[in-house]
User: Fold this.
Amino acid sequence: MSKFKKKQGNAQPAISTASLPDIVFMLLFFFMVVTKMRDTELMVTTNTPQASELTKLEKKTLVNFVFIGRPTPKYKEKAGTKPRIQLGDKFANPDEIPLFLEKFKTTVPESQRQAIITSMKVDSEVTMGIVGDVKTSLRKAGQLKINYSAKSRERTK
Amino acid sequence: MAKKNRMVNEINAGSMADIAFLLLIFFLVTTTIAEDKGVLVKLPPWSDEPPPEMKLNTRNVYSVLVNASNQLLVRGEPMDIKTLKDNTKIFISNPQKLENMSEEPAKAIISIKNDRGTQYGTYLEVYNELKAAYNELWEEAAMVKFGKPLEELNKTQRSEITDAIPLVISEAEPTKFGEEK
Assistant:
């Protein structure tokens, strides 16, 4: 009987897994570069309304954000239940808007300051009094390009 | 004695992948690709003096009033928001050349006035419908004039259309009848 030499078919092909983390690191670096850490925590609830005539905000670096809404449960004791304005990372009043805009302007090169857009994320149940005050404040400061943040929906037929 | 020189260092690289995955998931969770679409509006410049009393022919003015109960009053008549866009389009283009509607699209002015108690959601819906009316008129004009949809036009062609039908929406100071919530 011939010796059947069992071929060691299960040769341990040492698949080098050293490159696997490299691939994952590449993905990681991609995400680190492309996305932005949410630096401002939203202290007010902003349930934006729906609209059909939407334009995308092109350059994120030229956009500053104004949030208007009722404070989140976490901030209710500090700020109350009436709608508040949040500029950047703290609560503010309409008269603090020009300073906020100036501070933002310094982060933008001179040539692009004309293209600065202010994105207003306002809760749909907030009344127009406070929104109107913010708009007046923006107009007085010369910031005329506004974008009302909204969720997309189909145009009415 | 034959020493088996174990020079082969087998670093198990499998756990490196786990660490990398953890970091990746961390970044996916904490960063946001924020909501970045909205209705673009150009506010009128601020002037301390009241605006000059322009001799406006009332036939060219389309007034939209919104009260604190979020109801619309368009040119003196209550109106449902669903019909606002079509009504606005008819006003601006005035296909039947009615006496009480705009002389020509270039002279049409829309004025919005809301109350301090009007809800922002309603205000934006009104603004959206008015903008949609203009966008639809521009799209129709683009097809008629150039045979191409609005997005495919170049800058000069686009300005031709927007100059013929300029978007003029003026906002008045809000009234204070309603209660601000």
Notes: Helices of chain A lie at 19-34, 76-79, 97-105, 128-140.
